[in-house]
Amino acid sequence: MKRNPLRLAEDRILVEQLRLVLGNVGSSVIPAFLAAILMLWVLSNADNQVGLALWCVVVILSKLGCYFHARYHLSTGITFGQAHRLVGQLMFLNALDAAIWSALCWVTLDTVSMTGRSLVFAVLTGIAGSSMSLLAPVLPLFVVFILAELLVVVSKLFLMGDGSYDALGLASILYGVTLIGQARNSAQAASVAVVLRFELADSHARLREIEQRQTLAQERQRLMQDMHDGLGSSLVSALRVVEHGRLDEIEVAQVLKGCIDDLKLAIDSMEPVEADVLLLLATLRFRLGPRLASSGITLRWDVKNVPPLEWLDPKNALHILRILQEAFTNIIKHTHASEIRVATRVDPGWVAVMITDNGSGFVVEDALQRGGGKGLFNQLSRAASIGAELLWNSSPAGTCLTLRLPLQRGNMNAT
């Protein structure tokens, strides 16, 4: 069924159409002022000077009223509940505006020359045409404007008692009907544009929702995999050695503490770090600080400000946390250190995080060659997956682990 062009659109579309109409009002104010002043200057004579001056004042006041009315509703916003009431207000204002403009015929046609009358009709024709572009988004507003203007103008022309003006009156009616037909096409085009914009916005919203669901699914899968590989593996290993009686209560407690740390770090990695390495390190310090204190190890925090890493998302953040957690765990379990120093620096193209201890040290190559170097291999694997570099410098006086993180993704997988 074909839609009635004079029927108002649904509320969401109508609100946008009204915003278009109200936004157009400002562009008509100055031309209307100039046209009114031009009429006063050109057509004024002893017979109509007072009436034309009053008409000019009413035109200016009417336009100012329409302008401030439009600005008010644009600034306060248009709700769905206000839309139909606002249409009624605008229909009244535009009918009044059209009547004021067409009153120019009543003020001047009997008192000016044919040239002046031609000017009057030229101005009224221009007003009718320009109103189409201003009001067409809500077609009933333009129809009311044209009907009000035609009613006043045509009635005056027929009362002139001249066949030529009767013909001009009929021509004015034909012109008004033609403008309504053109306005109908413009209104349909404006409606289609608004509908397409809403459909595009809805499509983007659906895509964002799908992307968010996919991201959540990927994060859940990543978290489950990491818990399986990290926490799950630690618990299974602890269970086996406990079952065989190879751990005492203190060692079991240490294993469980490590598992709890694993779980907390996995959860912390889900929090947004906003590309801030320092925030990530602060999270690690908060989680591992109590464990260091209970082990009698002093933590020196010499972290300096470093540039943000735009590629630092939850997945990469967890890799970094795991690398550094493994470093702390190795120090606690194997080095007999009494102090750990955490520091940062900026190298060309890199951000470096250093963890230094004063423990007994170890031979890195021997640790990697022996089967017991699984933790080191895990650290290297995680570093490689994020394009980072991992270096050890160890001696009997202690060990320094340096994790170099690329500033830009272009440096990923750099050697």
TrEMBL record:
Top EC group: transferase
SUPFAM superfamilies for this protein: ATPase domain of HSP90 chaperone/DNA topoisomerase II/histidine kinase
Top-level taxonomic group: Bacteria
EC number: 2.7.13.3
InterPro entries from the UniProt entry: HATPase_C_sf, HATPase_dom, Sensor_HK_TwoCompSys
SMART domains linked: HATPase_c (SM00387)
Record-linked Pfam families: HATPase_c
Coiled coil: none
Reactions catalysed, as given in the entry: ATP + protein L-histidine = ADP + protein N-phospho-L-histidine
Domain Histidine kinase/HSP90-like ATPase intervals: 315-409
Keywords: Kinase, Membrane, Transferase, Transmembrane, Transmembrane helix, Two-component regulatory system
Transmembrane segments: 21-44, 50-70, 90-109, 121-154
Protein known as: histidine kinase
Species the sequence originates in: Rhodoferax lithotrophicus
